[in-house]
Amino acid sequence: MIELGSEAFLMGTDDPDGFPADREGPVREVHVERFGIDPVAVTNEQFAAFVRATGHATAAERFGWSFVFAGLLPDDFPPTRAAAQAPWWRQVEGADWSHPEGPQSSLEGREDHPVVHVSWTDARSYCGWAGVRLPTEAEWEYAARGGLEQRRFPWGDELTPDGEHRCNIWQGTFPTHNTQADGWPGTAPAASFEPNGFGLHCTSGNVWEWCADWFHPDAPRGPGRAKAIRGGSYLCHESYCNRYRVAARSSNTADSSTGNMGFRVAADPA
């Protein structure tokens, strides 16, 4: 793990391109105590070791299905139920962490990709087994910024400096055409792209990452309906969801799983 913290930083944003309803702002000074955080999200290989050791069945496995992005399904895939507000999400029977696009798919060649189709409760179970924990939102954002103050991305304010892709997000026209200019139609290996100033990879794009906090900003450790997720994913696009900015935030219920949600672990100092 990378050890960070014991200092203050400016958290949040007043970016006019942000989402005020997500309570990204106002910008405020937040102090984080020392903590450790992994440079990459938990991978399929790591999660597989957890399942082998514990026999853990994920929420998706217990429910019998999970949400898969329609563009990753084969053309001849049987019709499935779509999410009402986001029809590009399809309810796929048999989709889970080891079958990301359904029973016909596998993890072959994706052992070093972030695990997906894991709920917040699954992530917590992994943490209990591994002796770690999920980061708080403040820890996550501090680490994701990589030492840069109030920049939009972990590397600066420009999305593609000198035309170079620095993260795995959607290029083209969402949701119908992905040019894959960054090289990946879905998840990318967890250590893809250059790390930020603190040594963390993919804190923008690739997969959403669960945090410990409830989504409600006034009571992050108190009761709530949804847990915070940070970082955006390979499906984020400026036309509808530019939440790959480091200050952006979103949420999902603790038992939810999708093909673009994973997690990164943290720990208290020894």
Shape: globular
Q: How many structural domains are formed by the residues?
A: 1
* Uncertain spans: none
**Beta-strand percent range:** 15-25%
- Name given to the CATH homologous superfamily: paralog of FGE (formylglycine-generating enzyme)
Mean pLDDT level? 95
Class by helix and strand content?
alpha+beta
Named at the architecture level, the CATH assignment is Alpha-Beta Complex
CATH fold description: paralog of FGE (formylglycine-generating enzyme)
The N- to C-terminal Cα distance equals 11 Å
Helix residue percentage? 10-25%
What does the main sheet amount to? Answer: 4 strands, mixed
Describe this structure in words.
- By secondary structure, the chain is of the alpha+beta class.
- It has one domain: paralog of FGE (formylglycine-generating enzyme) (Alpha-Beta Complex).
- It contains 4 helices and 13 strands.
- Strands 11-10-9-12 form a 4-stranded mixed sheet, with helices on one face. The chain has a 3-stranded antiparallel sheet with strand order 1-4-13, with helices on one face.
- A hairpin with a 3-residue loop joins strand 7 and strand 8 (177-178).
- The longest helix has 11 residues, at 44-54.
- The mean pLDDT is 95.
